[in-house]
Design goal:
About 35% of the residues lie in helices and about 15% in strands. The chain is an alpha/beta fold and about 350 residues long. The strands form four sheets. It has a seven-stranded mixed beta sheet. A four-stranded mixed beta sheet has the order 11-8-9-14, covered by helices on one side. A three-stranded antiparallel beta sheet has the order 1-2-3. Helix 1 packs antiparallel against helix 2, helix 2 runs parallel beside helix 4 and helix 2 runs antiparallel to helix 5. It is globular. It binds 5-S-methyl-1-O-phosphono-5-thio-D-ribulose (MRU). 5-S-methyl-1-O-phosphono-5-thio-D-ribulose binds next to helix 2 and strand 9.
């Protein structure tokens, strides 16, 4: 499995996903502005991966702050936090990483600043390694819903490229295969940036996982033919009432699944769940430039001057979601908020596969 991101020799090295699958090339970021640019330009993308990039970007930014005073150090870091937070608004993971690091530092405010700088590098690596473990746990919980012989549809890329490794939506797929189940994956191509085509199809083929690529608008036809057993997608921000923001087109797929009685699962690490937001209507939706729609690989395909809307994400209301697969178990969207309540009996509300 290729590495999505790593801290190496005092730099943040990220796989430049804009070049895949034609070229496997790494981008070495020597300062936090480069990390922020890499996130903005989608060199690194996928909610957990940009959370990891943010943690590493903060560690990199911290090394550049020249002071021995904790308060001055934190003041300097605020600029780093804000630069990273301004890159992509929908995924909650950048905010999650900033809050985690802020708390980490506040709890260690009496340590010398030089020691804190070194500790931030360790903490960023911990964020990366924990993410891989979390994805494996999501895989273990989710695999029970995949039966031998099943075909799973997924949208965008919520695979190892979107995470520290292993993937969220691909976690259950990978575990099901490790369990010896013979399964197939259908990957939506995911217009306009083609994450399904360029990234999901590529990473699954690298690992010999049977995958078939379809255009986004083919999904309805093959769902209606009964060729798909379940859907598993990722999320950029899932909120307290169980509404899910994910790549544009997820909502359409969820509605099509409901129409055709196909279960629709969302793989959501806790780092992508925003318990403070009560409804999906409040999630900020990133709108990107028109070129992603009017051009394909630099070539103009639309009439010159046409008006474009390019929403990068949509919100799927909780009512279309069968279950949310987290590292703590699988839950009905309506029960999700209980994960944030002290003393909730999670075992009692967990969804289990019936067969
Ligand atoms: O614009 P992207 O490529 O960052 O969008 C990614 C997605 O929508 C993923 O499904 C989501 O971030 C979950 S990744 C585990």
């Amino acid at each position: 499995m290729v590495k999505t991101i790593e801290w190496t020799d005092g730099r943040v090295r990220m796989l430049d996903q804009t070049l895949l699958p034609r070229e496997v090339k790494y981008l070495d970021c020597t300062d936090y502005h480069m990390v922020a640019e890499g996130i903005k330009k989608l060199c690194i993308r996928g909610a957990p991966a940009i959370g990891i990039a943010a943690a590493m970007g903060i560690a990199l930014g911290a090394q550049q702050i020249r002071t021995g005073d904790f308060n001055e150090f934190m003041k300097g870091l605020e600029g780093v936090f804000n630069t990273l937070l301004s890159t992509r608004p929908t995924a909650v993971n950048i905010q999650w990483a900033v809050e985690r690091i802020r708390k980490f530092l506040t709890e260690r405010r009496h340590e010398p600043v030089d020691k804190l700088k070194a500790m931030l590098i360790e903490e960023a690596n911990r964020v990366l390694n924990e993410d891989i473990e979390i994805n494996r746990a999501i895989g273990e919980w989710g695999a029970q819903f995949i039966k031998d012989g099943d075909t799973v549809i997924t949208h965008c890329n919520a695979g190892s490229l979107a995470t520290g490794g292993y993937g969220t939506a691909t976690g259950p797929i990978r575990v099901a295969i490790e369990q010896g189940k013979k399964i197939q994956v259908i990957a939506d191509e995911t217009r306009p940036v083609l994450q399904g085509c360029r990234l999901t199809a590529w990473e699954l083929m690298q690992d010999n996982i049977p995958v078939t690529l379809i255009t986004d608008n083919t999904a309805g036809a093959i769902l209606r033919k009964g060729e798909i057993n379940l859907a598993i997608v990722g999320t950029d921000r899932t909120v307290a009432n169980g509404d899910v923001a994910n790549k544009i087109g997820t909502y359409s797929l969820a509605v099509l699944c409901r129409e055709n009685n196909v279960p629709f699962y969302v793989a959501a690490p806790l780092s992508s769940i925003d318990f403070s937001m009560p409804s999906g209507d409040l999630i900020p939706i990133e709108e990107r430039g028109p070129e992603e729609v009017t051009h394909i690989f630099g070539r103009h395909i639309a009439p010159e001057g046409v008006k474009v809307r390019n929403l990068a994400f949509d919100v799927t209301p909780a009512k279309y979601i069968t279950g949310i697969i987290t590292e703590k178990g699988v839950f009905r969207p309506g029960d999700l908020h209980k994960l944030n309540e002290k003393g909730a009996d999670l075992e009692k509300i967990m969804l289990k596969a019936k067969y």
